[in-house]
C-alpha cells in the first residue's frame, strides 16, 4: 500500500498530463512542486514564507516550467490566468521551520472554495491533512464538514487514511470535479 504522500502523487499523476497546469498551494520545501514540474506543463507555487519559496526554487534548479509566488494562496487568482487541472495543498507547518507559521482553516477554506469553482472538469485537488497539532485538528474537522456537503453530482470526494497508526498521522482527501 502507498503512503499518504505517495498516494497524493499517484492520484495527481493519474489525472494530469504534460499539457496541464497545476498549482501547489503550500510549496514548503518543494517536494510536491518538484513532482508536479516533472509531470505537467507549468506549475504555480505559493507560500507565505520567503524561506520556503527559496528552498523550493533551489530544489527546482534544473527546471524552468514554474513560478513560485511569495503570497498567501487565497490570492492565487491574482497570478493564475489560465485554467488548471491539478492542485495540491499540503497543510500544516514547514518541516524543520517555525511551527507557529501554519495554514489557517479560514484561509484554507476560502482558497479551496475558489479552487473548486475554477478547477477544470475532471480536474483533481489533493489535500494532505495533519490533524496531530492543535490548529491542524480544527482545520481537519472544518475541512471535512465543508467537503461532506459538496454536491455528489458535481464532485467526487475521497478520503485515504491509515486507521491503525498512533499519533494522528497525516491523511489525504482528494476532490475530483465531475462537471
Ligand atoms: N508541500 C511542501 C513540501 O513538499 O515540502 C510541504 C508544505 S508544509 C507542510 C506547509 C507550508 O504551508 C509551509 O511552508 C507554510 O509556510 C505554508 N503556508 C501556510 N499558510 C499558507 C498560506 N496561507 N498560503 C501559502 N502557503 C502557506
Key features of this structure:
179 residues; alpha/beta; 7 strands; binds S-adenosylmethionine
What this model shows, in words?
The chain has 179 residues and is of the alpha/beta class. The protein is built from five helices and seven strands. The protein has a seven-stranded mixed β-sheet with strand order 3-2-1-4-5-7-6, with helices on both faces. Bound molecules: S-adenosylmethionine. The site of S-adenosylmethionine has 22 residues, from helix 2.
How would you summarize the topology of this molecule?
Layout: H1 4-15, E1 21-24, H2 31-37, E2 42-46, H3 50-59, E3 66-69, E4 84-90, H4 105-118, E5 119-129, H5 134-148, E6 155-160, E7 171-177
Parallel strand pairs: 1-2, 1-4, 2-3, 4-5
Antiparallel strand pairs: 5-7, 6-7
Helix pairs in contact: 4-5
Bound molecules: S-adenosylmethionine.
Mean pLDDT: 96
SSE pattern: HEHEHEEHEHEE
> Given the structure, what is the number of helices?
5
Number of E-state strands: 7
Radius of gyration, taken over Cα atoms and rounded to an integer in Å: 15 Å
